[in-house]
């Protein structure tokens, strides 16, 4: 049976109407317009209410995550959060029963080889004297000489074994690589630690750093050693200002964002501490004023 024209037109109309309805429903269910998406910049945006100001965060000059060289079970911490630590101080320990046993074994082996050396040396000196007098044979002389050399070789091997055992034992302790403050524990005693997994943080807050990304119009106008004003914008110190010294300026522009990176150092005070947000106040004329800004009281 061949459908007539009316049936064909009705089918075409229904298909067209259904497709339009489906399209409108699909658009209405989208959470947002995909065409409006954009990559948000990784840098703070310029404050709209302050001309020539860039927002950043004051960070410790050093912030180190302490990691374990070897996997194991965290035995415990030797310092508490907020405690001052020095470079080389032990901060935490992993379980080390096997490594301790290896050190003891290697130490005992060294003592045994030392006794062998003393005995072999005494015998060699006795035979050497007799050999010079023509009483002892050359064969006896060579044998005692070989025994002394063999004992010395065993001693050297024992020392190497002890050194390796001590190195393994040392890998079970975690030391601070810097002077600073033990800021935070990241694991609990008894927990399993993977190799190179962080167990804590040590920060050095003797100086603070701030990194901002400047617009291309300031390129070549902000230079190393420039002193610029920084204003704290959060916390009880909001509104206070201090000086920041430029210590690094990128030599090229980022081609994607059209910005360049500037790193500044700031001296901490009772009211300026790490973690605060701040504004870098750039001169409106776009040129850095050197040593003209004074620190606010």
Automatic annotation (TrEMBL):
InterPro entries: RND_pump_MFP. Belongs to the membrane fusion protein (MFP) (TC 8.A.1) family. One of its GO terms (cellular component) is efflux pump complex. This is Probable Co/Zn/Cd efflux system membrane fusion protein. Residues 96-168 form a coiled coil. One of its GO terms (molecular function) is efflux transmembrane transporter activity. Keywords: Coiled coil. It comes from Methylacidiphilum infernorum (isolate V4) (Methylokorus infernorum (strain V4)). SUPFAM superfamilies: HlyD-like secretion proteins. It comes from the Bacteria.
């Amino acid at each position: 049976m061949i459908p007539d024209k009316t049936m064909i037109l009705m089918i075409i109309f229904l298909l067209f109407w259904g497709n339009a309805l489906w399209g409108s429903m699909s658009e209405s269910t989208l959470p947002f317009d995909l065409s409006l998406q954009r990559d948000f910049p990784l840098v703070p945006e310029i404050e709209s209410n302050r001309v020539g100001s860039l927002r950043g965060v004051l960070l410790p000059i050093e912030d180190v995550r302490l990691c374990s060289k070897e996997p194991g079970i965290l035995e415990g911490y030797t310092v508490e959060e907020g405690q001052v630590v020095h470079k080389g101080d032990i901060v935490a320990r992993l379980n080390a029963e096997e490594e301790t046993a290896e050190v003891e074994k290697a130490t005992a082996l060294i003592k045994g080889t030392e006794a062998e050396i003393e005995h072999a040396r005494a015998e060699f000196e006795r035979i050497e004297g007799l050999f010079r007098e023509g009483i002892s044979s050359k064969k006896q002389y060579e044998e005692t000489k070989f025994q002394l050399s063999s004992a010395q070789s065993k001693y050297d091997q024992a020392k190497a074994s002890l050194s390796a055992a001590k190195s393994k034992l040392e890998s079970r302790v975690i030391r601070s690589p810097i002077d600073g403050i033990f800021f935070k524990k990241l694991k609990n005693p008894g927990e399993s630690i993977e190799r190179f997994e962080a167990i804590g943080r040590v920060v050095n807050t003797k100086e603070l750093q701030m990194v901002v990304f400047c617009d291309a119009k300031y390129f070549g106008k902000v230079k190393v050693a420039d002193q610029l004003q920084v204003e704290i914008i959060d916390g009880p110190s909001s509104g206070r200002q201090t000086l920041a010294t430029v210590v690094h300026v990128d030599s090229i522009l980022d081609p994607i964002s059209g910005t360049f990176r500037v790193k500044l150092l700031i001296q901490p005070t009772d009211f300026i501490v790490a973690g605060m947000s701040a504004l870098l106040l750039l001169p409106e004329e776009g040129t850095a004023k050197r040593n003209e800004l004074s620190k606010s009281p």
